[in-house]
Amino acid sequence: MPGRPAPSRRTVLRGAALAPVAGLGAAACSPGGSTEPAQPTAPVDLGAESEVPRGGAALYRDHNVVVSRGEDGTFAAYSTICTHARCPINKLEGTTLICPCHGSEFDAATGEVLREPATVPLAALRVEVKDGRIVAGPDA
Ligand code: FES
């Protein structure tokens, strides 16, 4: 006799409830870094060479640069972005730079660390005098 009871049993799985809800909290990846203080990426005119006395230093806060001058008249320049946690250093006492964030100190004549927590010297910049003006920029 024909007439099979064709047992076409289909179990339709509606699996929607099992789909994991992924990554809803992971989308907040901002480009970041845009407000970070920066050392010069191009040569900047800092001012008259006479502003830096022999054996002294001058801090150019607007450019995050310190320029020092040896007794022999030789100039040196360093970025004043602290190597500890990248705060801009805003204080110069004699030739000692003092970071406002955690108190690291640096020698403006050499860039060396005088006081921790920083352990890495300041980044050296290129400096030259053009027509009596100090021009500092990234080390080429
Ligand atoms: Fe300068 Fe920490 S950022 S001491």
CATH homologous superfamily assignment: Rieske [2Fe-2S] iron-sulphur domain
Low-confidence stretches: 11-34
Q: What is the H/E string?
A: EEEEEEEEEE
CATH-level-2 architecture: 3-layer Sandwich
Structural overview:
With 140 residues, the protein is an all-beta fold. It has one domain: Rieske Iron-sulfur Protein. 0% of the residues lie in helices and 31% in strands. It has no helices and ten strands. The chain has strands spanning 44-48, 57-60, 65-69, 75-79, 91-93, 96-98, 105-107, 113-115, 124-130, 133-137. The chain has a six-stranded antiparallel sheet with strand order 1-10-9-4-3-2, with no helix packed on it. It has a four-stranded antiparallel sheet with strand order 5-6-7-8, with no helix packed on it. The radius of gyration is 30 Å and the shape is globular. FE2/S2 (inorganic) cluster (FES) binds at residues 82, 84-85, 87, 99, 101-104, 117-118.
Structure described in brief:
Strands 1-10-9-4-3-2 form a six-stranded antiparallel β-sheet, with no helix packed on it. Strands 5-6-7-8 form a four-stranded antiparallel β-sheet, with no helix packed on it.
